[in-house]
Amino acid sequence: MFISFEGLDGSGKTTQAQLLGRRLEAEGRDVVLTREPGGTELGEAIRGLLLHGGDVAPWAEAALYAASRAQHVDEVIRPALERGAVVVCDRYIDSSLAYQGIARDLGLEPVLELNLAAVGGLLPDRTFLLELAQEDAAARMGAERDRIEREDDCFRVRVEDAYRVLAQRFPERILSLDGSRPADELAGEIAKEVDGALRSGS
Hints:
Layout: E1 2-6, H1 13-26, E2 31-35, H2 41-52, H3 58-82, E3 86-90, H4 93-103, H5 108-118, E4 126-131, H6 134-140, H7 153-169, E5 174-178, H8 183-200
Parallel strand pairs: 1-3, 1-4, 2-3, 4-5
Helix pairs in contact: 1-8, 2-3, 3-4, 3-5, 4-5, 4-7
């Protein structure tokens, strides 16, 4: 099973991905907990360029994310799924659709096409979207921020709205959750959904 977590920086997605990964491991499952951009040597190098480098043109940004993702799927995600592991990923294709496709006006369809080609059509079985108002998400972030986290409030509002568009576009895959709820409460709901999917094989 392939599970991804999405949301604004500060929404709690990383915490929930880690909590789910630890819970599944405690149940004796083979779990691969990974993140994007990153997850591989090449991906981590691209992560440094994207998050801690200088200005990056929108299409260059989209292409770099797709390149990192292609390597990630080839080297980590697909092999793990083929051996029967549960893959839990902190961000995946929907981040590119929200940030570059919609918020940066590159177009949802062109960015989706680019990424589906990069990953051979591989999409998560479940995507948990933690929805949180951008001002609340920003308040959770520390003073040290990467290039994307330093974007202004207007951009973060556009990303917030973009995720809502994606949840409406892909309701069969994306489950929206209230990111303002207590972490343990959210973790319980996510675990229940994942347990049900694992039992049913869907």
